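pasting input
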Amino acid sequence: MSNVDDSHIPAETVADDGDRRFDWQRLWPLASLGTLLVVGCIWWLLTSGLSIVKPLYFPAPVEVISSLIRLGPSLLADGMATLMRVVVSWMLGSALGVLAGLVMVRSRIAYFILTPVVEALRPVPPVALIPFVILWFGIGDSGKIFLAALGCFMVMAINTIVAADNVAPVYLRAARSLGATQNQVYRTIILPAIGPQLVGGLRIGAALAFAIVVAAEFLGAKNGIGTLIMLASRTLNTPVVLLGTIVIGLEAFFLERVIRWFSLRLTSWAERSTD
Amino acid sequence: MTTPAISVVDVAKRFAARGTQVVALERTSLDVAPLQIVSIVGPSGCGKTTLLNLIAGFTQPTEGRALVGGRPVERPGADRAVVFQADAVFPWLTVRDNLSYGPRVRGLPRTEWQGRVDRFMALVGLRDFADAYPKQLSGGMRKRVDLARAYVNDPDVLLLDEPFGALDVFTKEAMQQALLRISAEEPKTIVFITHDIEEAIFVSDRVVVMTPRPGRVAADIPVTFSRPRSIELRAEPAFQRLRLEIAGLLIEREAA
């Protein structure tokens, strides 16, 4: 009666019978650390070690570290201001985007009403709207959040429509035959079914939100990493410029990790080719 | 005579495809008595799936009408459960949640279906996999989830659209046995679409033979072998004679 097909069980559970040799593949992630180390060494060599690159064009590691120590808490405050704008706009824009996408898939009339708006705004780079946004919202948080949320909204609305179109019709038919109403089909079938496909859009949206928020901070803000870089570049303070970009990189990496952690848990049911 | 569980009256289905009209189903009538198991056999393109989709309410006939329980079919509904050839087990739900999906979306109280879920889970041999996700199951096990899910919802009729068509021969035979076991436990009116003649005879009380282009009913043959049926039945001369008779009908029509 029990004809369990091994090929559907994640490799770890299958391989774990008696084979107690150490699995060297577990150490492979360390290779990434190695890459970072090599890049760091080359950076040090080119700037401090061999002095091939002038400090103005690319600052040495020691200058960046001294800037870090000098800025201290104010760098943290700028970093948090940027991260907060990114996270808030990303969550808000993505949620509204998924909602709008589902509404457009659900209702033909909503689709035709919203399509011109979406299609007209979609090709416009959100940063092109920064002058308007500064006029409308000033240089506070709301304008930057609005702009980045708009970017995420577009990504997720399109992502949702495409993903919902790809849901296997057999699931919809099965659900209807089991007594689900149209609305229940959207909540209990389409929304969970598109989950794994939305992860891609969420990650693209997070990267986009960073780009938009930092660009908007460049053109007018009270604080944030973008502002920090902008002010530093006016005085050709390249160590701070580089420090700012490193902070953005770290924050983006951190957010990416959080997204991946959550998405793996929420879509653990999905079959993956890397299982 | 009792009113038929399913009554298909003079239905025809035509599609317009690239300017030309395609006849998927020629004017067809079919009555299925309550608790009868009817197989519809025929090669692909004979309109058997179209016929099933009309009864399920997935499509509307161009002519005629389909009645289930005396009421005209207008849309899909919980009174007509469908099991498809494709894997329709919801991968984001555990086996238990798949089985209880129907009663839950219909808003039935837990006390009404909890027992049925456990009963059918045991009947198809999936009790140890209640909390497993479909990706952990084999193709045959998923099909059993599909079948049990349809039964748990307690429909009036069960529509099976080549449900075992994608399975290997051994799994397929095990599934046919499982279907016979469940239908003995809880008799239902069943329409079973297949292109496997032996499978059709083995599970049903009646075999309807359809031929293609345009799809229509060519023969309606009663199957009188007693139940319960075991795998040995297939070796009986009477079984094989019936199989050849039906195969002959299909070949004859193909040649004509």
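fyi The radius of gyration of chain A is 24 Å.
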